[in-house]
Amino acid sequence: MTARPRVGVAVVALLATAAAAAAVVRVSSRPPSLTDRRRALAERLYRHGLLPSGQPLRARGPTGELAGADAACARCHRPSGMGVVEGDRIIPPIAGRFLFQRRADTVAEVESRHPRGPDLAHALGRQRARVPYDRDRLVRAIRDGVDASGRSLDALMPRYALDDGDARLLIDYLAQLSAAPSAGVTPQTIDFATVVTPDVGAVERQAMLDVVSAFFDVHNAGRELERLRARRYAGATASSARAWRLHVWQLTGPPATWDAQLVEAVRRQPVFALVSGISTQTWDPVQRFCERRALPCWFPIVDLPPFAEGDFYSVYFSEGVRLEAAILARVLATQRPRRLLLVRGDDAAAAGAVQAALERLGRDGIVAEERVVPSFDRPALGGAFAGVGATDAVMLWLRARELPRLGDVPPPSGASLYLSATLAGGERAPLPPAWKAQARLIYPFELPELRRAAMARVRAWLQTRGLPLVDERVQADAYLACVLLAEKLDEMRDLVQRDELLERAEVGLAMRAPTAMYRRLSLGPGQRFASKGGYVARFAAPTSPALLGASDWIVP
Ligand code: HEC
Predict the structure, then answer these.
(1) Cα–Cα distances in Å, from 395 out to 105, 178, 335?
(2) Terminal CA-to-CA distance of the chain, rounded, Å?
(3) 315 with 286: CB under 8 angstroms?
(4) What distance in Å separates the CA atoms of residue 384 and residue 398, rounded to the nearest whole number?
(5) pLDDT tens digit sequence for 454-469
(6) CA distance linking residue 423 with residue 425, whole number of Å
(7) C-alpha–C-alpha distance, residues 13 and 253, integer Å
(8) In this predicted model, what pLDDT tens digit does every residue of 323-368 receive, in sequence order?
(9) Nearest atom of ligand 1 to the alpha carbon of 152
(10) Which of 77, 98, 101, 102 to mutate to test the pocket of ligand 1 (most atoms within 8 A of CB)?
């Protein structure tokens, strides 16, 4: 057993004066250390409500007993410990630097230049003055709901049953929580990586990389100005004054080897987050890696994002083909075809989509059947659509490159025909005219007509950077990922934290940013897919890429 570091006491002493407090946030300062083992136990307690013994954490809440994940501190105070404001409820920050000093109570104190700010929950809580906590008072707050000034805390704050050892562990954890910037951040720089999987075509790859690099260049050119502005704030380095550096992590070989490649890449170059990135096949190993390393994976362009309940670090614009499957199921629930054919080629994202659709449709009692067509020759296609009648429906999970081959066979006459916009390339889907006349696109984006204004901003930006429009979705998504990143980093200013980046995305995603390809972007706590709906659309004419809505906005 290692000796317990007396970090809490050290922090109290350090924070005794305002001048010393400023030193605590200086980015070079080290967080108080916990041994790895104690940190892992404390984190499990804080985030998941499991005691070191393996027993669930227990507490008395306003309406009864709470246990395990329901009682976990992170559920309310969030993984970063920075708290949150939900409507008129304020959950205060409980990261050590907030607790071990007096609560700020003047406006000037909660301004961004202050080492405790800027933080909304903290700022709004300032009407209730409070003296600094020490360890004993903190234990009292957690067990008995009495704050450092002796006032009773709101009943919403549970009263915990914690023995002395577990309370000590928790307080050591709070003392170091969000105390220093995350890895990949220095006073002058923030390092980012963008991940490209080997299946991605050269055009899409370059389209994404060009946008992200151009965005980084613009940011870096602008930071000189920011730095001058930031001088007004004593001791503060605005995060926008840091240079952003981009590292391209090009993965090679089969997905089973990607994790080792990522481990090696981050060993050579620690990064704060992954920004954008692109894959047309699986993204599973990347998400797993990010989760394990507590590394934000910020809006990559992927057709089939992994779904893993409870994962925190990866956020996506939408659920991709899985969202399409849900929209399809919704539409068919009223249309009630005799049966549904799910047609796909040899493609991992399409296979994932079919699986998602089968699960979803099965729940709704719709009979569906998968037809795999690896070789797109006439006999195979003829076979795939054999016997399809007017009361049937067909969903094509086909890639753009596969679509022209459909010209060899007539579309199944009378059947309802649907097409995945994500896989087919949206309105640019190279469908033969006879198919186009009959097909409906399942379209998980805002309709082109309605997103014109939002896209005008993106196009104008591309134009001033000298970037031709080569792939609207890829370029718009890459741009939007960068804009959202800049917005959130700007809000954080000095103390750039990974957990907080994601939490800020949860409470207000697109505050100032355009929505680009999407109708609305928002996340709530625990949500990881920002755009939640789509349309059924049809082509205006068999020879035109113009799209018309064939349904209202559908949120399945
Ligand atoms: C169900 C939501 C919820 C959970 C879970 C929760 N808290 Fe709280 N906590 C609150 C609320 C709300 C307040 C503010 C109460 C008030 O201002 O009267 C609060 C206040 C506090 C305070 C006082 C902060 C101050 O500045 O005086 C501390 C310390 C605290 N919580 C620690 C914890 C710890 C440690 C855990 C986990 C063991 C935890 N909380 C779990 C909701 C929660």
Answers:
(1) 60, 48, 14
(2) 53
(3) no
(4) 13
(5) 999 999 999 999 999 9
(6) 6
(7) 53
(8) 999 999 999 998 899 999 999 999 999 999 999 999 998 888 888 9
(9) 18
(10) 77
